[in-house]
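Q: For a teaching session next week I want to show students how multiple molecules come together into a single three-dimensional assembly. I've collected the sequence lines for a complex. Could you give me the predicted structure tokens for the whole thing so I can convert them for display?
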Amino acid sequence: MFAPLDTQRCFRGLLAAMSGPGTVHDVTPGLPLVLATLIDHEVRLAEVGDPQWETADFVLVRGGDSGGALLRARHGTLLDPALGATAIYEIDAVGEGPLALSVSGPGVGPGPRSLHLTGVPDSEVALWRRTRSGFPRGVDVILVDGTGRCAALPRSTTLSIVEG
Amino acid sequence: MGYLAVKGSEEAIRAARALARPTGGRQTVEALATHLPLVLDEIQGEAGVYEPHLAALAFTQARGDVAEAVFLLRGYRSTLPRRAPARADTAELVPDRRISSAFRNVPGGQVLGASNDYGLRLLDLDIGERPDATPDTGIADEAGPTAGTAGVAATASGAGGAGAQAPAGGAGTGPLSKVIEHLRAEGLVAQPGPAEPPQDITRVALRFPASRSARLQALARGQSGAMTSFAYANLRGYGPFHPTLAELRVGALPLTVAHPRTGNPVCIGELPVTEAEAIGQKPDRDNGTLGMGYGCVPGRNERKAIAMAILDAVLSGVNDDAPFDSPLADEEFVLAHVDGVEAAGFVEHMKLPHEVTFASDLDRVRTIRQHVRGPA
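A: Of course. Below is the structure for the complete assembly, covering every listed component.
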């Protein structure tokens, strides 16, 4: 179990990650703490394959590939875009790796920011882009790795893959 | 270069905040909690959280600005986890004040409790010369003698009793039967409809048309002054409802939650509340029953509870839900505008820079003038 101060510190980290898309923050030890911070008896969490996936507030993807399921996560409505789900990915590494994303939009600044990831196929990046094509509807993305690093790609962020 | 201006503003902002810094500390917080409980009740009701100490902190930090204190407390509330829903039944409320203006003799009697309703409103110029007194909770020192002259049944004499304990002078020691139930038993007031699962407007934003539970919650969190004004507008003729107060009660309401293992109800504490039930006929419709409006607010705030009951009655078309022709029957007009935090925020945000929008306005007006007058 985590103490309230742990989850508060994690919340600050997630907040900083969400408000500065593409920046990397420390939420050691990673996924368990993120779940303890965001999930309680008032929200629904689903993993890929769960029947509740389409109505869940948070969806969890272990590994970087949802296999297309992300498209069926809740996107919210134009009247209630806040009802869009938040997708939490546990991936191999956040902040380093072969995949280089160019990130721009609110919270990034005048020029784009780059974010390196390990363990996310190009097809999943394409899903992220598709889910946010109907902005303000869409799915927000939180990425966390086994060492406790996290980054976020809220649906307001524009993404492209930097060809290496 | 742009940053120079920002730096200048930052200094000015810091200086402005320093000038507005609260000076109150422990003594102020203690004095508030001990001697000014009503303002704390008002703050707690509007903030939607009942914790007098936190309200005293907020009021001290806000230097006596109620709207600001409510804002602070609501913000803090939003950080608290919601553990479990509690159930409350006001039939179980143990009143330390209970009056009916509909009947002189009600079962259990008129229990005045603490009230200034029957005294004169004369400024006590000596109050600042006397040391603070220890409040003995619930004692209305004039209740006995004035009760008689005000034509209220004498069961109320001998003061209200201590706190949530049994009122002295003939009233029972436990819950009192509700006046509205006697009227329901006679068929004069309709039985309440089936309860819908309550909706929490702090979780699901208020939308119109609102469910009744959302309406009641919005009203319970409403700003006391705004609620009073709208209810007053109804009474003066901008609304249709001529209420009689079947009952007004102040007391401790037991709260129960289901035990996580056994599921049995467990009392986890009491919440002081004020409850008002207003009854009246629906104008232009005589089906032989009376409609009812309901008000219930945390703490002691009789004015707001009565206003809530009146507004609930108007908004429910005095219960057949066919809307009245009145601005006060427009639920968005009432519910959206009684929220003190939203109202204060929107009105006061006008102080923030609007130079760009205003420059655009000005451009348009200048262009129109040129078209009308021709080039200068």
